[in-house]
């Protein structure tokens, strides 16, 4: 499809980071013209250092490249099958990193820049888009990332509403439901309240006695924390979203009166024993495979989080789909604001991609850029591309962004927070493997490994079917 001048209207893409660069490649390779707008070097973000497209802001790692056993490795594999430029440039600039895919960051960014500059259907315009894109841009992808310039962010906020665009994330850890020990924990909502959409038993509760609580508070106070970057210090985090270790610093009892309050709950395992403190976990996705630790946003280092949170009764063997954090970020309350094609419901000519949609990480951002590019290219031809199956890594991540996450049943700020790809986002297998190829029974960890491998195999075969059925239709002139 490349090489011919398309008469169709161009797609305007704002931001040439991981998502915008991938989106531009996908649109142009579908035969549609692209105007790619990037503000650097005229205006820099607080973290970018170069004028290169797809600059990696921090680490040079794309994480695990193991497609059979790791969800991000599976996402790599799916993106390669879909002709991803980001994966092609990463593979060509790989540096040794064991099972991970790490890249030479300058070589990687140069390869992406050269490919986009050399594409006959792509025009690169340097300059900040400092307000909503002009009304005569009918097919726009906004991929301006976690450090979106302030004026554009303000315009987007004015179009949505005050609470729909967040300027920092306050991430509470998320636990795989099947790793919680329900012989110690139990389901119950505080005072058995039903709430809208609840059933009176919506939370998983983990009880602590006084000794356990004291040990826990001491560990929080002593645990290693990450520092805020200079330019993050003035971000207004602290209204109603204090990190738990900061709450603990304010007084030993503060947590017992906040997220760990033990009232309105009775432990069915020991009904006569009153817990001294209780940690609550709330269902995070519609599938019910993930639960978030309510109010547990934290700046503790990841190793400290795993060690300390596994001292909580019921979470001794917790497997974390996401660990907690607080960062400067810019992202939409996507499940509410975006439709299934990543378009802003309030103004459908604007489609979003990358970290702004509420995914997290280089690879995830690029993958959402990839699908946004395919959607925009189909739309330019007045076609509609069906979404990738929810059983694929791309489809499950997209599902989380556009609807898989369930809103908090409590009053308070929106509960949607950025997410890396993980196996908890995939629909469970209808019949999980129980036996090895030789017919003997799978035991312990072998079951987890076999389950992940079966999810990965299902994903790749479903992706190929979707590509065969849907992509030629969407690309048909
Ligand atoms: C400080 C920091 C460190 C990070 N480290 C990591 C890490 O180590 N590993 C990881 O996987 N993820 C990391 N992330 C997350 C990372 O941002 C995303 O993974 C990824 O870069 C997001 O891709 P994106 O395309 O959405 O945004 P970006 O890659 O940031 O691209 C957005 C682009 O839009 C441009 N832009 C912004 N506003 C405008 C405007 N108004 N007009 C025109 N252009 C504009 C920017 O200059 C930029 O080039 C980090 C994030 C931050 C903030």
Annotate the secondary structure layout:
Blueprint: E1 11-14, H1 18-29, E2 34-38, E3 61-64, H2 71-81, H3 85-92, E4 94-95, E5 100-103, H4 105-117, E6 122-126, E7 140-142, H5 150-159, E8 165-171, E9 174-176, E10 186-187, E11 203-208, H6 210-222, H7 244-249, E12 277-283, E13 290-293, H8 302-309, E14 320-322, E15 325-332, H9 334-337, E16 343-344, E17 347-352, H10 362-380, H11 393-404, H12 445-475
Parallel strand pairs: 1-2, 1-7, 2-6, 7-17
Antiparallel strand pairs: 3-5, 4-5, 8-15, 9-13, 9-14, 10-11, 11-12, 12-13, 16-17
Coarse shape: globular
Task: Say what oligomer this is.
Answer: single chain
Secondary structure tally, helices: 12
For the biggest sheet, the summary is: 6 strands, mixed
What is the CA-based Rg, rounded?
Answer: 23 Å
The helix fraction, in percent, is 25-40%
Which percent range describes the beta-strand content? 15-25%
The end-to-end distance, rounded to whole angstroms, is 10 Å
Mean pLDDT equals 91
